[in-house]
Design brief:
Chain B: This is ABC transporter permease. Chain B: It is found in: Cell membrane. The complex is a heterodimer of chains A (246) and B (276). Chain A is an alpha/beta fold. Helix content of chain A is 30%, strand content 24%. Chain A folds into two domains: 1-79 and 152-218, P-loop containing nucleotide triphosphate hydrolases (Rossmann fold, 3-Layer(aba) Sandwich), CATH 3.40.50.300; 89-148, no CATH class. In chain A, a hairpin with a 5-residue loop joins strand 1 (10-20) and strand 2. Residues 1-6 of chain A have low confidence and may be disordered. Chain B has a single domain, classed as MetI-like (MetI-like fold), CATH 1.10.3720. Chain B has helices at residues 20-51, 60-72, 75-107, 109-123, 127-138, 142-166, 170-178, 183-221, 226-235, 239-268. Chain B is globular, with a radius of gyration of 24 Å. Classes of the chains: A alpha/beta (246), B mainly alpha (276). The A-B interface holds A 61-63, 80-83, 85, 87, 89, 91-94, 102-103, 105-106, 124-125, 128-129, 131-137, 145, 149, 166-167, 170 and B 1-5, 8, 11, 171-172, 174-175, 177-182, 185, 189-190, 193, 196, 271-273.
């Protein structure tokens, strides 16, 4: 038995997840998917589109309970989880600040969020409604909501998809800034290898459907050393280890 | 699009105050149009009453006189108040019960399949039948009167709110689940704002329908209210008084629409760029 404490990792052990279509056709999305994310580690779940990454995340978020297997979320500190979805999913009828505060537990509702809003460049936009924000700003607000809750584990589901590359790059840097201030166990789903190499400590490579773990790729280099030269080296060694992936 | 929004499009109203005079005129035009339009109708009515003088067709002047007299002796406000109270009570009951049933049916398909015929049945029962049965079964009392009106309205609310519940976006519910919103927060911040257009539609059509049914209820089994007065003056063949009470109540409903319904709706839709 693992003692309950700060060092309990995120452990995933999904035996099988099957979807049944209305016509009775069943599709196995996940099979024997098991991996671990260590405490305070930023991991990426990398795999081809449609391989079951989002399905995995939905199971971990507790939104899909129809699967066989088990998973164990990190404990210690708060037992809360936070998520950044593919779309920002801000309540359109609440301001940016209200959206962030509503996600907080009652005891933290009035906490000071100035630092977080400043870091994410949202200081002047707290009283705007989501419809008044660009997509990039709305995603920043979604990040603010996730980090404000000080979660024990953070799930991100391709949070920078459908953004232009410049905006996505700026948001990746912002994400790293906020995350470094309070390193939280994080699991991000992406099909973008460069993004994964830039952000993560460990890349969990998934195979085509039914998804299972093809292998792990650890990036031990601190993030501030990952300049374009180093990134292309990383890319090369990744492709040597996983030829044909991404 | 990463630039802050002040470089892009501004929210509507940001340009207000550029030319206050034309702005004032633009604000007054609809009000003036309504006033002139109503004045024209009164004029037409007056001319017609002058052309065909009859006790059954009094002019606006006579109706106004009756209105003033009824207001002076206090009868008008007493009966308006009684009717308004019943309208309000029936409205609240119908909206609460109808919304609950509607949202339940809209979110549970099997329940909806089972109860859909009931909804159709109740939709098609004539208001008069419900009122008569309510008075027979529960007696000539206030609860039966208000209940009968509510039962007439509930199926309409159910149908509208069922559509609203079917249109709920599951991603908001999932976000609320992940961030562990409490039940009250879910209702207040996630569910009700999504249902707001449907609530507004049900309310709008609801108030108009309810007050008309309330008059029938009062005519059949109450001893006060606008409906009772209209029945009384019908027996006295006093058309001026009938019109006076009708117009007074229509005026009250207009004031409620302008002072309560529209501001509430504006507040509820303030987050939309272009209020519906």
């Amino acid at each position: 038995m693992q003692p309950v404490g700060a060092a309990v990792p995120l452990r995933v052990d999904i035996a099988e997840k099957t979807f049944r279509s209305a016509q009775g056709v069943s599709i196995t999305a996940l099979q024997d998917l098991s991996f671990e994310v260590r405490q305070g580690e930023f991991a990426c779940l990398l795999g081809p589109s449609g391989c079951g990454k989002t399905t995995t995340l939905r199971i971990l978020l507790g939104l899909d309970k129809d699967f066989s297997g088990s998973f164990h979320l990190p404990e210690g500190g708060s037992d809360r989880i936070a998520a950044v979805f593919q779309e920002p999913v801000l309540l359109p009828w609440r301001t940016v600040e209200q959206n962030v505060r509503l996600a907080l537990p009652k005891s933290l509702r009035t906490k000071n969020l100035d630092g977080l809003f400043d870091t994410l460049g949202l200081a002047g936009m707290r009283s705007l409604y989501p419809a008044e924000l660009s997509l990039g700003l709305a995603r920043r607000a979604a990040l603010a909501r996730a980090f404000a809750t000080e979660p024990a584990v953070l799930f991100l589901d391709e949070p920078f998809a459908s953004l232009d590359e410049r905006t996505a790059e700026r948001l990746r840097h912002l994400l790293l800034t906020v995350w470094s201030a309070r390193p939280t166990t994080a699991l991000m789903v992406t099909h973008n290898l460069r993004e994964a190499l830039m952000l993560s400590d460990r890349i969990i490579v998934l195979a085509q459907r039914p998804a299972h773990v093809l292998g792990m790729f650890d990036v031990r280099l601190p993030r501030h050393y990952r300049n374009p030269q180093v990134m292309s080296d990383l890319l090369r060694s990744f492709q040597q280890k996983f030829p044909g992936v991404a | 699009m990463m630039s802050p929004p002040d470089t892009g499009d501004r929210p509507p109203g940001a340009a207000a105050g550029t030319s206050s005079q034309s702005g004032l005129a633009a604000a007054l035009t609809p009000v003036l149009t309504v006033a002139v339009s109503l004045l024209g109708l009164c004029l037409l009515w007056g001319l017609a009453a002058h052309a065909w003088p009859s006790r059954a067709f009094p002019g606006p002047g006579q109706v106004w006189q009756v209105l003033l007299a009824e207001a002076a002796n206090g009868d008008l406000f007493y009966h308006l108040g009684a009717t308004l109270g019943r309208v309000a009570a029936a409205y609240v009951v119908a909206m609460v019960v109808g919304s609950l049933i509607g949202v339940l049916l809209g979110s549970h398909r099997s329940a909806d399949r089972f109860f859909a015929p009931w909804v159709v049945l109740f939709l098609n029962i004539p208001a008069l039948v419900v009122i008569v049965l309510a008075y027979i079964w529960f007696g000539l009392n206030e609860a039966a009167a208000i209940g009968a009106v509510a039962v007439n309205k509930i199926p309409n609310v159910v149908v509208t709110m069922r559509e609203g519940a079917r249109a709920l976006d599951p991603t908001y519910a999932e976000m609320a689940a992940v961030y562990r919103f409490g039940l009250l927060d879910r209702i207040r911040h996630v569910l009700l704002p999504q249902l707001q257009p449907y609530l507004a539609a049900a309310s709008r059509s609801g108030i108009a329908l309810i007050w008309k049914i309330v008059l029938v209820v009062e005519l059949l089994g109450r001893s006060n209210g606008v409906g009772f007065q209209i029945y009384l003056y019908f027996q006295l063949f006093d058309v001026a008084a009938i019109l006076a009470y009708t117009l007074a109540f229509v005026a009250v409903m207009l004031v409620i629409e302008l002072l309560v319904v529209q501001p509430v709706e504006r507040h509820a839709t303030r987050w939309r760029r272009r209020p519906a």
